[in-house]
Amino acid sequence: AYRTDEGKPWVLPVVRTVEAQMATDVTLNHEYLPVAGMPDFRLAALRLLLGEDSPAIVENRVEGVQAIGGTGAIRLCADFCKKMLGYDSMYTSSPTWGNHLGIFKSCGYSNVKQYRYWDAQNRTIDFNGMMEDLNAAPEKTVVILHGCCHNPTGVNPTEEQLKEIGDLVERKKFMLLVDEAYQGFASGNLEQDGNTVRYFVKRGFEFFVSQSFSKNFGLYNERTGNLAIICANKDAKLRVKSQMEMVVRTTWSNSPNHGARIVASVLNNPAYYAEWKEHVKTMSDRIKMMREMLFQKLKSLGTPGKWDHIIEQKGMFSFTGLNPAQVDILMKKYHIYLLKNGRINMCALTTSNMEYVANAIHAAVTE
Ligand code: PLP
Questions:
Q1: In testing the pocket of ligand 1, which one of 212, 216, 252, 347 has its CB within 8 Å of the most ligand atoms?
Q2: How does it assemble (predicted)?
């Protein structure tokens, strides 16, 4: 989760403003929302993801279904593809956010696999490995890509690579699920961070996008997500929506109100929207600053190895390249906690603990 430079959770000021208004608005009540979720929220989420003038929105061939966080949106997609379309195979990157595997397994997929993604030696995408593995996947496969800020590596495909992935997805007739959990965190620019999704829309793909508002709105425990469904035409969209409502009905029946109302109130009000964009930039700038500081500090210490990846990777996480033995030293000797694979949360770094962490990494690498 995001933390301030004081190491504290951050309730975005615009979220506080809207919550204060909600608390005294006597026109609000606790009636159930429609099964597909709050209409104002779903449309605002789609506009944010695809752009105001997206052809898919203008042509009325995209639907949003509210979900219990980004996790719930992934679950809806997995369930729908299994139950309604007969998919039994899912490929996601190696490494990835672990829940991708768990969700598809618990939906009954018998072929849950990971394609090569991370080239540890060069600290970049193993693009040939990825293409080779996807080429070998069966035709009816759901393929997950991270829209931006790949978790845990912080590295996403280049434009040229994305085109090649798109060609392969098209040729093999894969079902694409783009996991968009960090829109705004990569560049601080919401439009730019939607580019992967917008590229596939431009190509006319029918696909899914799971959107999470946990990070960019700081609404972690409000479970606010949306599944964007991009179809070829309006008829297909209506059919998918009605089937998707059956999945929602038997899963959680009805989505929660609070987080969706906050997001809808902010995105549909120009002044609040402008304020929120500043908040997203504040979070993304803080992460970039921590990356820069850690990089400079390791350089000035002369820590062996190349550390450019710290500033090149995008988003909340950094795949440091530290090996399990070095991670062990950091945890046992310095009480700095990170994943065994070397992933650190950049938001855990602050101007006050930077010196300590950099010195500890230096010691672990040189020991
Ligand atoms: N997808 C990725 C890649 C994530 O990192 C996360 C959260 O950490 C999620 C999805 C789930 O988000 P949510 O908390 O909104 O369910």
A1: 212
A2: Homodimer.
Rounded to whole angstroms, the Cα distance separating 288 from 152 reads 16
Instruction: Note the CATH number of domain 285-366.
Output: 3.90.1150.10
Interface predicted TM-score (ipTM) = 0.99
Encoded tokens for 59: 């042509």
What are the pLDDT digits (tens) for 307-316?
Answer: 999 999 999 9
* 252 carries an active-site annotation: no
Residue nearest atom 7 in ligand 1 by C-alpha distance: 181
Quote the longest CA-to-CA distance of the chain.
64
Domain boundaries, the chain: 13-268, 285-366
Contact call for residues 196 and 29 (beta carbons, < 8 A): no
Mean pLDDT by 10 residues, the chain (367 residues): 97 98 97 98 98 95 98 98 97 97 98 97 95 97 97 96 98 98 94 96 97 98 98 98 98 98 98 98 96 98 95 94 96 97 95 98 96
Name the DSSP letter for residue 41: H
DSSP state of 305: S
pLDDT at 21: 98
Architecture of domain 13-268: 3-Layer(aba) Sandwich (3.40)
- Region of 235 (left: φ > 0; alpha: ψ -120 to 50; beta: rest) is alpha
What are 300-307's contacts with CB under 8 Å, separation 24+? 301/358, 301/359, 301/362, 303/358, 303/361, 303/362, 303/365, 303/366, 304/365, 304/366, 305/365, 306/123
Residue in this structure with the two tokens 């504290």, named with its chain if needed: 8
Q: How far does Cα 207 stand from its chain's mean position?
A: 16
118 is catalytic: no
Ligand 1 within 6 A of 264 CB?
no
